[in-house]
Amino acid sequence: MSATSGTPGTPTIGVLALQGDVREHLVALAAADALARPVRRPEELVEVDGLVIPGGESTTMSKLATAFGMLEPLRERVRAGLPVYGTCAGMIMVAEKILDGRADQETIGGVDMIVRRNAFGRQNESFEAAIDVAGVDGGPVEGVFIRAPWVESVGGGVEVLARYEGHTVAVRQGNVLATSFHPELTGDHRVHGLFVDMVRAAR
User: Fold this and answer.
1) Sequence-ordered list of residues with C-beta below 8 angstroms from that of 39, at least 6 positions apart, any chain
2) Which of 117, 169, 165 is nearest to 144 (CA)?
3) Model pTM score
4) Rounded to 5 degrees, what are φ and ψ at 102?
5) Mind listing the pLDDT tens digit for each residue in 43-98?
6) Residues 86, 90, 95, 98: what is their CA dihedral angle, to the nearest 10 degrees?
7) Which residues are designated catalytic?
């Protein structure tokens, strides 16, 4: 348990606040009964029980993580078992390999998968779709896809949680969860609730 965690039932979950839709994740985590806070520096990373890596632009996020001295601390904490949830660009950041990325683009890793950037099209091809996500009760989740990736392939230790039109769009491996879509933009906090439960179980 981190030194600054809340009550035993209320984990402290950070949102990587280098770039992307940070505020929406903070709101969704709070609605899912977590103590949510932005994380920008290594000293803030050690104070959280779990971390969300938001959507945004994955190449920019990678560069900023390096510039802020966050890339190696993030890798170390993920390897040590920190629960992490990546959405859209965050899914790319937790992938072991990227297709259609920049040659110098680095990731944090954590999920044995190959992800294709912008697989569902450009910004003007954004869409919403009802997605059945394993482990999320109450019917489909409304997924918002904005320049979203999809998962080309996964290793043997990866659990596929959801597909859309035959493409894998949600996965879990150990303490790392990732979705191609943005649940934080819909007002439906069930996927965040799933992640909060993962963080509680890991404390």
Assistant:
1) 14, 15, 16, 17, 45, 48, 51
2) 169
3) 0.93
4) -70, 150
5) 999 999 999 999 988 889 999 999 999 999 999 999 999 999 999 999 999 999 99
6) 150
7) 88, 182, 184
